[in-house]
Write a structure and sequence with these properties.
The complex is a heterodimer of chains A (310) and B (362). With 310 residues, chain A is an all-alpha fold. Chain A has helices at residues 8-34, 42-60, 63-87, 92-110, 136-140, 145-163, 165-175, 177-182, 187-213, 225-235, 240-262, 269-287. In chain A, helix 10 (225-235) crosses helix 12 and helix 11 (240-262) runs antiparallel to helix 12. A six-stranded parallel sheet of chain B has the order 2-1-3-4-5-11, with helices on both faces. Chain B has a six-stranded mixed sheet with strand order 7-6-8-9-10-12, with helices on both faces. Chain B has a two-stranded antiparallel sheet with strand order 13-14. The termini of chain B are far apart. Classes of the chains: A mainly alpha (310), B alpha/beta (362). The interface between A and B is large, with 37 and 35 residues.
Chain lengths: 310, 362
C-alpha cells in the first residue's frame, strides 16, 4: 500500500516518534497554563532535560535513569521559575524568556564533556507477534516505551482535568485565583506544583531528543521544539486531546516534508514547512470569534501573578 | 634646508609610511581568529577547523595568539562578529563557512590591514581577501564507488545541506562513481537546509531509510545520520568532514576527512613573515587537504582495494573524477570523451548529471 511512493504505515509510525518531544512538552505546558501561569521557558527546560537526561543515561548506563534525570533536571530549572514568579512575584513573560536563555547556556556548559558520546540504546517494547501484523503492527506496536507513555500522559491529564477534584481545583486556580484563595485553596502551592509538572514533562521531551531521536548530545539540540510546543498549546485551545492532534500535525509535517523529498515528490518544501503555523493562526482566528469562543479560550487568570493580601 | 626640500622630504616620508603599510612587514606576533558555523563538538566540519587552529598554535607557540567564536549564524550576525574581531586586533581572520561570503567581503573592505580568508566561497572583492577550499568531490568519488559496490537495494540517499555548487559537485561525483560500480544505482537527495541540526539530519536519514535506501551519504556536519543508520542493520554511511570513528566499523565504513591544518599553518606563517598575498587555493587528495578515512572491515577486501586504487589515482593526478563523456541531466553534452572538467565549470556547478532524478531547488 503506497501513496505517492510513501508507505502510510511507515509514515505514521515515524511521525508518532517525531511528535513525542513536542507532545510531552505541550501537555506539561497545558497543565501550567490551566493553573494560570504562562511559562515561556519550555525551550530552556527541554534542553536542560536533554542534557541532564543524557548525562544521567551515560553515567548510569540506563536509559530509564536518563529519562528520570532529564525530568528532574528540567523540574529543577522550573523550580527557579516558580520561586521567581510565585514567591518573588516577578513578571512571568520576562522570567520565562530569561529561563530559556539561561537553560540554553547552562546546558551547553554541562554538556561540555559529553559531546560525541553514544548514549545507551532505548529498546522498543517487545510486543512479539503483534508487531508483524501488516500495517497496524508497524504503526501501533513498533515503538519505544516513551511513545506510549506520552499518549498515556495526555489521557491522564484529560481524565484528571475533566473528572477529578484535583483537576477542578487546578482549573479554579487558573480561572480565578482570588476565588480559589477565598475557598481556602493554596494558590501558590498549587501553581508551583503545576510548574514542576510542566518542567518534568518538558524534561522528558528533551531527554527523548537526546536519548532516542538523535541519540547524542550537541549544543542547541532541541532546536526550537519548545516554541513549537507553546504554539501547540494555543492551537489545542487548552484541551488535552487536541494537544495530541497538534503534536502529530506539527511532527507529521516535518516527517512528511522529508519523506516527500526522499520519495522525489515535486512539492516545494517551504509550503509544507509553514503550513502548521498557518493552521495555528487560523485556529486562533476561529477561537477568538464566533460560537466556539466561550468554550475555547485561555484560562482567565493566565499570566496574572497572585498575591494573597488577606 | 629650504621649504621645497622640506616638503619633498615630508612627502618622501609620507610615501615611505604608506608604502610600508601596503607591503606588509614581518610581524613579531600575529593574532589569528576563526569564525565557526557550528560548535567545536560537532564531531565534523567545525571540529576539523578547530584542529587547524590547534595546529597553528602548536606550530608558532608564543608568536601566535588565537581566538575563535562558535555557532555564528550565516548572515547579518556574521558581519557583526567579523567587525568585532577586526576591531579587537585580529591580523588574520578565517571565516569557515560558505554563508559568510558576503559578510567577509563587506568587512574586509572596511579593514584593509586585516587579512581575511574565506572557506568554500568564490568572491574576492578586496585585495585582503583570500579564498580556500578543498576538492571534496575527489573524496566523494571514492565513497561513491564504495556506495555503489555496497548497496543491495540499489538506492543511495544523499542528505544535502544547501543547493550550492560544492554540494552539487558532491552529489554528481557520488552518483557517477556509484553508477560505474553498479549500473542499477539510483540516488535520492533530501535537502535539509542546514549545515548543522542533529534532529533534522536524523529525521532526513530516517526518511531515506524508510524509502529503502541502504547507503547514506551526508553533506551535513553532525554524526546524527550515522547514529540513525546504526539503528537499522545493513545500512551504512560515511564520516563527513571528520573521521567520525566512533561509528566504526559499521555504519561508518569510511570517511572524507578535511585537513585544514597545513593551509592554516602556511597562511598564518605568511602573515608572520610579511609574505601574505591574496590567493585562491583549491587543494585535494594529493596535498592531503582531503583525506579518505580508514576503510573498515565491513567492506569486502576487493572493494576496499578498488577504492584505494581510485584514491591513489586521483592523488597521482592520473584520474580526474569528472572525466568525459558526461552528459547533463537535461541531455545536453557537458564533457566530451576524455575531457576533464575545468575548475570554472565545477565552481559554478548548478546542474545534475544524466541519470539523477529530481530538480535542484532554486
Amino acid at each position: 500500500m503506497d501513496f505517492g511512493g510513501i508507505n502510510p504505515a511507515v509514515l505514521i509510525a515515524s511521525l508518532m516518534v517525531a511528535s513525542v518531544p513536542i507532545m510531552l512538552a505541550a501537555i506539561g505546558e497545558l497543565v501550567v497554563e490551566k493553573a494560570g501561569v504562562l511559562n515561556l521557558g519550555i525551550e530552556g527546560m527541554m534542553i536542560m532535560g536533554a542534557v541532564c537526561g543524557f548525562i544521567a543515561a551515560v553515567e548510569t548506563g540506563s536509559p530509564v535513569m536518563g529519562f528520570v534525570g532529564g525530568a528532574i533536571g528540567a523540574a529543577g530549572l522550573a523550580l527557579i521559575f516558580a520561586l521567581l514568579t510565585q514567591v518573588l512575584l516577578a513578571n512571568q513573560v520576562a522570567t520565562g524568556l530569561a529561563l530559556t536563555l539561561f537553560g540554553l547556556g547552562l546546558s551547553s556548559l554541562l554538556g561540555q564533556g559529553y559531546v560525541g558520546i553514544k548514549p545507551p540504546p532505548t529498546g522498543v517494547v517487545p510486543f512479539g507477534p503483534l508487531r508483524d501484523i501488516p500495517g497496524v503492527g508497524r504503526v501501533l506496536f513498533s515503538h519505544d516505551p516513551m511513545v506510549y507513555l506520552s499518549i498515556a500522559v495526555v489521557a491522564a491529564v484529560w481524565l484528571v482535568l475533566k473528572y477529578s477534584r484535583t483537576g477542578l481545583i487546578l482549573r479554579a486556580v487558573g480561572e480565578s485565583a482570588e476565588a480559589a484563595h477565598a475557598l481556602g485553596y493554596k494558590v501558590t502551592r498549587i501553581r508551583i506544583a503545576a510548574i514542576l509538572f510542566g518542567g518534568a514533562m518538558a524534561g522528558l521531551g528533551g531527554a527523548y531528543v537526546s536519548l532516542v531521536r538523535v541519540p547524542q548530545w550537541t549544543d542547541g539540540i532541541t532546536a526550537g521544539a519548545g516554541w513549537i510546543a507553546l504554539a501547540i498549546v494555543v492551537f489545542a485551545s487548552w484541551k488535552p486531546w487536541r494537544i495530541l492532534i497538534g503534536a502529530y500535525l506539527f511532527g507529521g509535517i516535518t516527517v512528511l516534508q522529508l519523506n516527500l523529498q526522499a520519495a522525489g515528490a515535486r512539492i516545494p518544501v517551504e509550503y509544507l514547512s509553514m503550513s502548521p503555523y498557518l493552521i495555528t493562526i487560523l485556529v486562533l482566528v476561529l477561537i477568538s470569534s464566533g460560537k466556539g469562543r466561550a468554550a475555547a479560550t485561555a484560562p482567565a487568570a493566565l499570566g496574572q501573578n497572585f498575591h494573597a493580601a488577606r | 634646508m629650504n621649504r621645497r626640500t622640506l616638503m619633498a622630504t615630508a612627502a618622501l616620508g609620507l610615501g615611505l609610511a604608506f608604502g610600508s603599510m601596503a607591503t606588509a612587514q614581518p610581524m613579531d606576533k600575529v593574532k589569528a581568529c576563526f569564525v565557526y558555523v557550528g560548535p567545536i563538538g560537532d564531531g565534523g566540519w567545525t571540529f576539523q577547523h578547530h584542529q587547524g587552529l590547534l595546529a597553528v598554535e602548536a606550530a608558532y607557540g608564543d608568536k601566535v595568539e588565537t581566538a575563535y567564536q562558535e555557532n555564528v549564524p550565516e548572515g547579518a550576525d556574521a558581519e557583526r562578529v567579523l567587525t568585532q574581531m577586526a576591531l579587537s586586533g585580529c591580523n588574520i581572520i578565517f571565516t569557515t563557512s560558505f554563508g559568510y561570503m558576503d559578510a567577509t567581503n563587506a568587512v574586509a573592505a572596511k579593514f584593509p590591514n586585516v587579512k581575511f580568508e574565506h572557506a568554500t566561497g568564490y568572491k574576492r572583492e578586496a585585495p585582503n581577501v583570500s579564498i580556500y577550499n578543498a576538492r571534496f568531490y575527489e573524496g566523494r568519488a571514492v565513497t561513491g564507488h564504495i556506495a555503489g559496490r555496497m548497496t543491495k537495494s540499489g538506492k543511495i540517499g544523499y542528505i544535502g545541506s544547501f543547493p550550492i555548487p560544492e554540494v552539487i559537485q558532491g552529489i554528481n561525483a557520488t552518483y557517477i562513481h556509484a553508477k560505474k560500480a553498479n549500473p542499477d544505482v539510483t540516488i535520492s537527495v533530501v535537502w535539509a537546509y542546514t549545515w548543522f541540526d542533529p534532529a533534522k539530519e536524523a529525521d532526513a536519514a530516517k526518511a531515506l531509510i524508510e524509502q529503502g535506501v541502504d547507503v547514506i551519504v551526508q553533506h551535513t556536519d553532525s554524526t546524527a545520520p550515522l547514529a540513525e543508520a546504526a539503528k537499522t542493520p545493513g545500512v551504512i554511511g560515511f564520516g563527513q568532514a571528520s573521521d567520525m570513528s566512533e561509528y566504526k566499523p559499521s555504519p561508518r565504513v569510511s570517511a572524507i576527512v578535511d585537513n585544514w591544518a597545513p593551509y592554516y599553518v602556511k597562511r598564518v606563517g605568511a602573515v608572520l613573515d610579511g609574505t601574505w598575498e591574496s590567493v585562491d587555493s583549491w587543494e585535494g587528495i594529493a596535498s592531503g587537504e582531503v583525506g579518505i578515512g580508514d576503510i573498515t572491515d565491513a567492506v569486502p577486501a576487493d572493494v576496499k582495494a578498488e577504492a584505494e586504487a581510485l584514491r591513489d589515482a586521483i592523488a597521482a593526478g592520473t584520474y580526474h573524477p569528472f572525466t568525459g563523456p558526461l552528459t547533463k541531466q537535461d541531455g545536453s553534452a557537458w564533457l566530451a570523451e576524455g575531457q576533464t572538467a575545468p575548475d570554472g565549470d565545477l565552481l559554478g556547478m548548478n546542474f545534475y548529471l544524466e541519470g539523477i532524478s529530481g530538480e535542484i531547488p532554486k
